[in-house]
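CORE FACILITY INTAKE
Project code: CF-77B
Contact: R.S. (postdoc)
Sample description: multi-component assembly, two entities in total
Requested service: structural model of the whole complex
Turnaround: standard
Below are the sequence entries exactly as provided by the requester. Do not edit them.
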Amino acid sequence: MAPAPDHAVWFETTQDGDRWELRLGGAWTVTHIGAVDQAMRALHPAGATRARIDLGDVQALDTAGAWLVYRTRKALLGIGIETGLVGTTAAQTTLIEAIAKTDAPGPVAPPRPNALIAVLARMGAALEAALEEGRNLLGFLGVIVVTLGRTVRQPSRLRLTALVANMEQTGLNAIPIVSLISFLIGVVLAYQGVVQLRQFGAEIFTVNLVGVSVLREVGILLTAIVVAGRSGSAFTAQIGTMKINQEVDALQTLGLDVIEVLVLPRLLALVLTLPLLVFVADIMGLFGGALLTILLIDLSIPQYLKQLQEALTAWTFGVGMIKAPVFAFLIGMVGCYKGLKVSGSAESVGRLTTQSVVESIFLVIVFDAAFSILFSYIGV
Amino acid sequence: MAGAVCISVRGLVTRFGAKVIHDGLDLDVESGEILGLVGGSGTGKSVLMRTIIGLNRPAAGRITVFGRDMLRASPTERQALRQRWGVLFQDGALFSSLTVAENIEVPLKEWGGLPADLMDELAASKIALVGLPPDAGAKFPSELSGGMRKRAGLARALALDPEILFLDEPTAGLDPIAAATFDQLIRSLRDSLGLTVVMVTHDLDSLAAICDRIAVLVDQRMVVGTMPALPRHGHPWIQAYFHGPRGRAARNEPATVGA
């Protein structure tokens, strides 16, 4: 590299027979040396046996610059050229000596396996994890049932305050959001129904469409999904945080039953309040549907109610309500289970909360499908 | 060793709601010294450090670092100043998704504009500088012990060759042997790299072993002195701190039997 004193960092080389000299100048600091790194690596004094590195013009030297000086000297020594440093201040000498001691290269990232093997290994690990998760959830269900049995025999063991507080949080406080969503979905369903059924002159059946779908499926599914996102995640986060703060350990050492104190009040609160929320969702969904149907197809309110009465049986409502406590149990169980699985860092709270929501919604939908098959089998 | 003042805090007032943490606090840090910052729990030692490095805005006062007024500096000036100091947070605050070496390369990538192989070399050099084994570079923070995480955090703080190093309780959570080696590491780094070190600590042994001066936070203000001089200060908290059994032990004073 040609000497360029106006540059922030520069070097020049001169050769006199077997004597080779490298003069450095400017600011040899971490923000500048990137410009000369490649050129310094490429230095190769042909025919020289002795070399000097002259730091006389160096205005600033930090650990990164010292590393470059050390590395260059090491490379020259490595090819049999006797190399000395000149023109260094006392502080620079100390720094270069300190850096010489840090020459211990190591890997930057762990070795990455072959991509195909990595994909297969991940698939295998995921399958194993899913199976183990299923087994653990079943085990957790067993523990809950046993604790529940004990609580039934000794009702005084039930934490009533916690139960009521959880009912307020998961039930009462969810009413506005559940109502609004059901109302809007009722409106959307009715609108789509009217537009499609009008092609056949059958827009009156919109009432049947909205009534049956809201009561049998939409009301319960939407409510369950909202509650999984709202309360299932909250259960995981609350219990998970207690786990991190070792509050769960403290409970155990004080001789309290974690399932009884933390899990049952939450689970029971959900099982008790979800059916009530589903009822609210049903009414609001029907109301939204009714509002739009009456507006769009010039139906009077008595006509609407008559049509609705013909479309529905008690079972239409019952099918939705039967599912509610089951879904509530699933959401509560997964939420609490994931919370108790938290370990180590705050980061695992976040990860398990996400898992809790995804898994409980997945289970809700799988069970909904199973219920559909069951109900069509028994003919309701 | 000590020289010009590189950090100067004047009339600092910090409030959280109605609670006054610092009330007209003054502090000078001299270039090349190791200053220990002590005080009871909740007196705002860490808050003071966070305020100096700009993570917390004070209600009033002046903070001057290298002659620049931190609170009135433009964003570019502040950014330039940030490159002149490194911070070690309590548990290292390493980015958990990156390996140790990649953690050290984060500031290099952002500010250095260096070729990848040189960054790897510098990262390896920093890893050795803080006394970690070479294979630690490829490990993730979760695979390291608390002491190793602190060393890795220190390596990252040193990546851009700062002139000032802020340490938040560097020896907290370490066993006494690891704490003593960490103290020695800080001192040898100060000597070889010419650093100025400001450390928040509870560790009396650290104070006695490596600090040139000690700043005590009492009654929302600073009392600054040296290890031999401070115990003679009249403030009851300082008396209790340095003349308690641990304070005596750290200063090699025999405990009065039965006291």
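Facility notes:
- The radius of gyration of chain A is 37 Å.
- Residues 115-153 of chain A form the longest helix (39 residues).
Invoice: internal transfer
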